[in-house]
Write a structure and sequence with these properties.
The structure is a homodimer of 112-residue chains. With 112 residues, chain A is mostly helical. Chain A contains 7 helices and 3 strands, in the order αααβααββαα. The first copy, chain A, has a 3-stranded antiparallel β-sheet. Chain A starts with a helix and ends with a helix. Chains A and B meet through helix 2, helix 3, strand 1 and helix 7 of A and helix 2, helix 3, strand 1 and helix 7 of B. Chain A binds a DNA duplex (30 and 30 nucleotides) through helix 4 and helix 5. Chains A, B: Keywords: DNA-binding, Transcription, Transcription regulation.
DNA sequence: TTTTATTACTTGTATTTAGTAAGTAAATAA
DNA sequence: TTATTTACTTACTAAATACAAGTAATAAAA
């Protein structure tokens, strides 16, 4: 089998793609999936609304995650100049994750 | 806006679906995405191969994750009766996550 | 106008989870 | 016989997260 593996590119040689690994470092980080999918569904939300929606996540971590996702260019934080109200939404990069969540939903409905 | 929110089901009332939350508790847990997608691509792997492939994950955690995924019915651990060789693969429930990973790949190729 | 509440955070501490490194029993190869 | 590989386990350290309380700024209620 060692010979076969060497010549046929079997599982011994399998490598995950870097893009994919990096993507999962973001999507797979605790709470990020729920944060992004919530913003995907609602278009935008204030901090309190998001926190209520992902209630098991502490404020402390939610703040940190939102910052990180902003730095990744997935979330955008906006301040209304008139009211001063802060809202969180997705950038095109973030919104483009919707098909991922749709597939998760499909899977979840079938198996969870 | 409070009135409007109450009557129109706007973001204040938004709730994530339980199935979806549970699904993300599994898929979103550190390393699980990479573990499952590796097994998705290769069909089955021995522990050492998997560990090499997800090299940033410690053996200790990989062992724990595989057990958890087995308990979730996503991963199956098989022992060859003849050789005693242990291999890890996916159950139908696990294999059914492929479309999710495909979408992550599509997104990663575009944005990461 | 003083009090109360809300928002979007921050800070300190406890607990949980993960990383590092070394070890082990069983099987296989040299 | 000795060395190596495999699939783990164990002890310890470091990092991430949870819990709880606090805060400055603004808004709403008494």
């Amino acid at each position: 089998m060692a010979e076969a593996a060497k010549t046929s590119g079997c599982k011994e040689d399998y490598e995950l793609c870097d893009h994919f690994i990096n993507a999962f470092q973001i999507i797979g980080k605790k709470w990020n999936g729920l944060i992004i999918s919530s913003l995907c569904d609602t278009h935008y939300m204030r901090f309190k609304e998001l926190a209520k929606c992902i209630s098991a996540c502490s404020d402390r971590v939610l703040v940190a995650r939102l910052r990180e996702l902003e730095d990744e260019g997935i979330v955008k934080r906006e301040v209304d100049q008139e009211t001063g109200i802060i809202s969180y939404g997705l950038t095109p990069k973030g919104a483009d994750l919707k098909p991922v969540f749709d597939q998760v939903h499909t899977w979840a409905d079938k198996w969870v």
